[in-house]
Amino acid sequence: MSLSLDQIKETLRAQRIETPSWAYANSGTRFKVFPQPGVPRDPYEKIADAAVVHRLTGIAPTVSLHIPWDRVDDFTKLAEHAQEQGVTLGAVNSNVFQDEDYKLGSVTNPDPRVRRKATDHLLQCVDVMDATGSRDLKLWFSDGTNYPGQDDIRARQDRLATALREVYDRLGDNQRMLVEYKLFEPAFYTTDLPDWGTAYAHCLELGPKAQVVIDTGHHAPGTNIEFIVAFLLRQGKLGAFDFNSRFYADDDLMAGAADPFQLFRIMYEIVRGDALDPAYGINFMLDQCHNIEAKIPAIIRSVLNVQEATAKALLVDRDALGEAQRSGDVLAANAALMDAFNSDVRPLLAGLRAENGLDPDPIAAYRRSGYQEKIATERVGGEQAGWGA
Amino acid sequence: MSLSLDQIKETLRAQRIETPSWAYANSGTRFKVFPQPGVPRDPYEKIADAAVVHRLTGIAPTVSLHIPWDRVDDFTKLAEHAQEQGVTLGAVNSNVFQDEDYKLGSVTNPDPRVRRKATDHLLQCVDVMDATGSRDLKLWFSDGTNYPGQDDIRARQDRLATALREVYDRLGDNQRMLVEYKLFEPAFYTTDLPDWGTAYAHCLELGPKAQVVIDTGHHAPGTNIEFIVAFLLRQGKLGAFDFNSRFYADDDLMAGAADPFQLFRIMYEIVRGDALDPAYGINFMLDQCHNIEAKIPAIIRSVLNVQEATAKALLVDRDALGEAQRSGDVLAANAALMDAFNSDVRPLLAGLRAENGLDPDPIAAYRRSGYQEKIATERVGGEQAGWGA
Amino acid sequence: MSLSLDQIKETLRAQRIETPSWAYANSGTRFKVFPQPGVPRDPYEKIADAAVVHRLTGIAPTVSLHIPWDRVDDFTKLAEHAQEQGVTLGAVNSNVFQDEDYKLGSVTNPDPRVRRKATDHLLQCVDVMDATGSRDLKLWFSDGTNYPGQDDIRARQDRLATALREVYDRLGDNQRMLVEYKLFEPAFYTTDLPDWGTAYAHCLELGPKAQVVIDTGHHAPGTNIEFIVAFLLRQGKLGAFDFNSRFYADDDLMAGAADPFQLFRIMYEIVRGDALDPAYGINFMLDQCHNIEAKIPAIIRSVLNVQEATAKALLVDRDALGEAQRSGDVLAANAALMDAFNSDVRPLLAGLRAENGLDPDPIAAYRRSGYQEKIATERVGGEQAGWGA
Amino acid sequence: MSLSLDQIKETLRAQRIETPSWAYANSGTRFKVFPQPGVPRDPYEKIADAAVVHRLTGIAPTVSLHIPWDRVDDFTKLAEHAQEQGVTLGAVNSNVFQDEDYKLGSVTNPDPRVRRKATDHLLQCVDVMDATGSRDLKLWFSDGTNYPGQDDIRARQDRLATALREVYDRLGDNQRMLVEYKLFEPAFYTTDLPDWGTAYAHCLELGPKAQVVIDTGHHAPGTNIEFIVAFLLRQGKLGAFDFNSRFYADDDLMAGAADPFQLFRIMYEIVRGDALDPAYGINFMLDQCHNIEAKIPAIIRSVLNVQEATAKALLVDRDALGEAQRSGDVLAANAALMDAFNSDVRPLLAGLRAENGLDPDPIAAYRRSGYQEKIATERVGGEQAGWGA
To answer: Which residues form the Xylose isomerase-like TIM barrel domain (chains A, B, C, D) (predicted)?
Structure first.
């Protein structure tokens, strides 16, 4: 089962990571958003930035959209713009958390009018998918409560199930629903989709087009994420990742920055479950905020971190690992895994890039390209895109 | 929906809490077990102690057994002994974690011989249930790994599913399987049943006789347990509780001692879900360790804590609560819940006990009874029961 | 040591809680700020709202300011306005986190120009104190880093110490510096003042005018806050509280809402340490965000929660408690504490208010007062105050 | 400031790690201790095992003792035995947690008789140090409480201070006291030394011979340990490490196994603070439990993990790092650190070992040595050493 170098390279060549349009825009904490020079002012400029990341890394050919942040009059035109830039439009993310009406929830709001409005927005996102040709509708809800007693926990589940069903039934044949969960924030007492179990139970009841999405920053302290990966793969219900990293809560730092060993363990479960190939159907997305660091190189760095973790996972000598596991040799089994993690895969990946006609060092290439200076100069006037834009 | 005092009393009269045989025995941490005078030396003495708790509280008429800790030659005789004492035998708990063979797991062990042995033990527990007339088989597995790579996460799920299936198929018509989950300890890297989602998914595949058991100490920091209660009730998959309390990990302190407000919120979801009545089928068990405090009064205290939380939950003015929730009045809704929590239900419960011919103050009654002195004197010689006994 | 009812009432009459100007204004999460009708548009209106809280509760006679949010041309005039309303100006809070320059830190910024600017702001806050007659300068820094390597952890401590020293030396005879710590947010990897130990060490080096402030929401999961209270009291270094409550991170919910038992334990340590009396010098402040609930009644509710926790703490039979503790009776000692917590102190406090000429139910009195409707009508036009305003 | 390869090698040659006698013995969780063949039966055999680790790694020349577990009639003889084996006796660890008397605490016990007994034990440990020539007395207390109200938090601090003072005053000129802290376990509500701040405050009051020891497994979730390292170095109060690793609580796994990136960050702060050299005075100890893995190779693996993390820390290009930090280039600064972490230092260390006449692969050398088979055969009969032995 251990792979040859050629097999490893071939697998790495096929890897795909999707970058999010909003990560190119301004973002921040509740305390402050620090704007950066050259930040995109509209969806077209976001896609241009994403295309730069793809041109330099070679493995980021799709861009997630966020509706209404990325709403345009003509999505066909936006899709054509993407294609001209060398990328395509990816998952459509709904946003039912930035309207006054959603103060006490969107699809789980006690007020039926607000639930209708929120569900209608989700249905419109499917319309957008029809226009863009996107396969994936990613649903994250900020819905929850801040105080014990504020609302009925169970009734909110009923409302959630009703809305999900209506949207599910609207999906086309080649469309999927990705259901995201999150422990807390912005709701502080209950969240209506707080953990993978809740998302899984809803997806199971909805049907095969509903799949769970794992955001790596959305768990309680001490949660073993690679276990969830392995379990959902076994159940056939892992649809996507939102990669990022965190030290405390949903910090949305660059993937692999806070715990590179965890990212490696996650990617090992993907490799072990034969789920890396795009044909398997998992959408490997980034979902990050670059609050204080330069945005485009931060996204490049994140893509490279996922790629390096994947290369290490592919290096695992699975024959040796399996033998040690079967014989109960705890230290030898751990060593087999660590041997791969402790390897330096950067030369391998630099070589692979060169073979593919890319610069071996995408970060350096970006710095040399002059793109940052160009957008800082050109993107003056207009309103910078941000979390609310 | 708000209840009259008579309805509240009637409901409280019907409440049932099961106490665990092992809580009457010595227990401790990995650092030290502090033995206590008068501790039982065999299952018969454990049941005698449990009977004292029931006589004083009036709501703890059943006792959970732990096999092999409570193995006796003749379970019919043990059941008769219980009946003479005024209690009956409750859930049977399997123990597949204290044999040398289980060092790397029981039903998920990489060695098929060990898996066979562990599964056979579970089947024997069903034999015990046949003898004792117990309805519930409670399964907790210490299975997991300590180091990344130590074993294959997904293969262990396959092994777990196989063992559970075999035991499930052995269950009689009136028997159930209660599947327990736990975040960590004694396994430190992965646990094969780490969270409610995993237990739920297995129970769903097994069938209607498999239900999830919530141990209130088995969660990651920040987990909202009452959400899990509400969700599992909605799915019809909540089979039992293991009550205890904790500040950090699985501290196994007296129920309600660490966070009485959380216990109240849990019991409110039970009341709201009409799941308190024994006919609903939830087994409300304690699962605690009294390492430094006197054991019998600690169990009485725990039973009372659950009862007080229940009484408060029953006091909630659900009409006012529902109206505030529907109108989106966050503060009024919170206040409706808090009004019940802030009430002092001890006079109500003391009165209820008096009406039922019990001492209004079970702790004081125990102290006056001389039972503690009696067992300290009589139970000399022999080996005290403990976690390994 | 147990108190008579008269002593309890006298103590409760003397209790003082300070409310924060910014809690009357709009606030939110990074996802959304939901504006509310009637929110103040300037510091004068904030103080008017705070005065309402004091008139109804009788124990909230001071208001914390935040600079520059509450900057006015003439602080003497603001102080007079406060006095007319029946309140006085309290602690001055510095804000060195909402300027572009502070992206990588304020007083710990690697750039000396930014450090100078930040320190100058702190010095200006002391000028404000001179004008308002405030005793307390409360310092919270968002300073920290998001990524390993981003800056030198130890050098930042040197810079922090330098700035604190300069400001400390500027304090007048009757002025104090309150140093606040926080685990994380908005910095995600390191925070320069992450825990009480760091704040304590700096305060110790600065001198007697520097004291630690405990914000109850600023700790790692599982931190025992009452231990910190007891320890800092023993060291003579507890200067103030920022009360609020939380389930996960720094949720800034109403004090006592998430864990009323914890608030009681904290207030018990205050009572046990004879530190409740204003003469002791602790500033008991609220620091909260009312994102979805009505602001003024939420603050009233928080004041009442602290008051109720205090009343329960005063009810503890300390003679019985001490005796049980000394004799090693774990259950009796715990019961002595719980007996007070389980008491319903609301009738006592309602009576106390009536004796003092206040409405026994401040929340109901507020609802009846028409103030909410009045401000919703009158405060139209202008810009609502908020976290950035 | 960046080091040449020669400087790196020289530094690595001087590195010293102390291994703990108890890690060679049986250990386990509260659920089960799994005995292993060949485990030592007395302190002499433990030292023999430690000597093997030193012969293979070249950097573990000292062994920590635990009293009374390692009590012998003649410590001079034990010291000679160690010297014959090529190692010396290191820190003396007190044990005041495994006697019936310590159920409610040792030096903080409410009973003065127990406090006297515990303090006397600590003084006897200094006698042992006199006999063994040990410099360090390591103090860890399991003291704390399980239930709110159980004992007076502040009075326990007074008792703790009294005991520490008496022991401190007994120390010889070249002896030190290392004060360890721990969040929880075995106490579940309060711990009398729960965090570094408490240990630091006590050490500061005691004097220069009292230093803080950081056990890497003793923190709340989300605690930034390298911050504490940097801070204590700045204060001159970091005396020692107890290395191990953890996913959840105090798991006591092999150092570097759970989070190798964290270990690297810790060692980087040590390198940055010029504190690696033995002359600086930090005692770098392991404190681990090998519950399911073979003990001697697990300790070798841990020593190598610390060594590899150190080598990576030494590889950091501190010139580049400092420049990026000073210029506020977040990504470049992070990259400078990560560049070192992502390097594979195993060839460097293998070469270094070969230069020093050691086998390049200590684990393989141990497996080949036949030592494990030898002790499994020879150490039959007698009682295996364990946590209680």
So the answer is: 73-249
Q: Which helix (H) or strand (E) holds B89?
A: strand B88-94
Query: Helices B371-378 & B362-369, crossing angle to 10 degrees?
Result: 40
| Dihedral of the alpha carbons of A70, A74, A75, A76, in degrees to the nearest 10 | -160
Smallest CA–CA distance, residue D360 to chain C, in Å, is 31
Residue type present at position A80: E
Q: Do D328 and C111 touch (CB under 8 A)?
A: yes
Residue type, C260: P
Q: How many CB atoms lie within 10 A of CB D14?
A: 12
Q: Residue holding tokens 């227990």?
A: B27
Nearest to C57 by CA among C26, C88, C13: C13
Which residue, among D153, D200, D238, D323, would best test binding to C if mutated, counting the most C CBs under 10 Å from its CB? Answer: D153
Q: Which of C358, C282, C365 is nearest to C62 (CA)?
A: C282
Interface membership of C223 toward D (CB under 8 Å): yes
One pLDDT digit (tens) per residue for chain D, 389 residues = 689 999 999 999 999 999 999 999 999 999 999 999 999 999 999 999 999 999 999 999 999 999 999 999 999 999 999 999 999 999 999 999 999 999 999 999 999 999 999 999 999 999 999 999 999 999 999 999 999 999 999 999 999 999 999 999 999 999 999 999 999 999 999 999 999 999 999 999 999 999 999 999 999 999 999 999 999 999 999 999 999 999 999 999 999 999 999 999 999 999 999 999 999 999 999 999 999 999 999 999 999 999 999 999 999 999 999 999 999 999 999 999 999 999 999 999 999 999 999 999 999 999 999 999 999 999 998 899 987 65
Rounded Cα–Cα distance for residues B297 and C323 (Å)? 19
User: For residue C59, what are the CA distances in angstroms to C12, C52, D213?
Assistant: 9, 11, 45
Beta bridge partners of residue A66, listed in sequence order: A93
Across the interface, whether the CB atoms of D222 and A224 are under 8 A apart is answered no
- Model-wide pTM > 0.95: yes
Q: How far apart are CA B88 and CA B50, in angstroms?
A: 10
Domains of chain A (ranges, CATH numbers): 16-295 (3.20.20.150)
Can you point out the beta strands (E) in B254-295? 283-286
Chains touching D (at least 3 CB pairs under 8 A) are A, B, C
